[in-house]
Amino acid sequence: MKRQTDENRPWLIHLVSSNRWGGMQRYACDICEHYRRQGWRVSAVTREARVVDQHFRDAAIELLHAPLRGFFDPVSALMLARELRDAPHNHTYVHVHRYRDAFTVLLAKRIAARPDVRVFSTRHTVRQGRNSWLFRRIYDKINGHIFVSKAAFDRFKQPWPDKLPMDMKTVHILHNSVNTHQASPVAEPSKGPIIAAYAGAVVKGKGIETIIDALSMLRDVKIRLRICGKGNPDYRDQLRRRAIARNVMERIDWKQNSETPYESISGAHFVVLPSVDREAFGMSNIDAMAAARPQICCPTGAQPEYLEDGRTAIFVSPADASALTSAMQRLASDKQLREQMGKDAHDYYTKHLSWESFIPKLTAIYLNS
Length: 369
Hints:
Number of helices: 14
Oligomer: single chain
Number of strands: 13
Helix content: 40-55%
């Protein structure tokens, strides 16, 4: 990696230890690209996973590879320490997305004798914090804890009803955003059948089985389902067999992210995201809002923090095919409702969740923590 000589130029390093592409990795890549465009030096440390690296290369982000295996991985800490020794003083920021990676960074700081390097963590899951001596120590040493929703923070703090293991001044609740690079939303398709889109990872827990079941109950409305996303081939085959068994295979288009999420959603009339899992924040939810498309989703996690049932979304219970059928029928048959819900969703997104709203808050966390 090229050494930095300009002490006044900030250096942002993101550790991305996952070997698959998803919302967390997209969040990191969007942030990296933004600060690179602002003139910062920006690097991503990855496990040399091709699918992850390619996105960062496309964004012209400098890459460094390390094993990133967590607590029993001194090699990664030593590699990072070599980089930190020559990093700009008081202008180096390391952002992680898993606490085991925070341990690697904190160890690297100690090896490099660089206490001025600031460490930030984003919590992307709805899980309890770990109440062991080691984890309490990690939490205490991080300069800024970013929780992507109140739901994520409330769940994290449950082991400590009285006092958190970190200073509350380091805790920030900051909803995600998406850097779409898009102009104003386009009108919904004017020809052809009504298109309902699922956009996101094609994995268990997202409620895709329920969408297929609901589609089989929609016989009086011409609705075509578009499943946009990548996933395990075996699981995709399971979904295909389910569609064949319910006689709806010919009504489903299967796409593997040849388009951006924004493009996939803009080509649909509404979005269906009935996740069964409790999500800390749904990137696909705000993709729909950015594209001014109404959505049907389950309020299993943070969705009620940024979506309003009946106004910007229709909430249904998880794994309830009958309720999902009714909601799809309602949106498919009422263009005026779709347009109004899409407009209200986009207005909320623009005011509260847009990239222009998100990035000054993140910058303040970096610079003031």
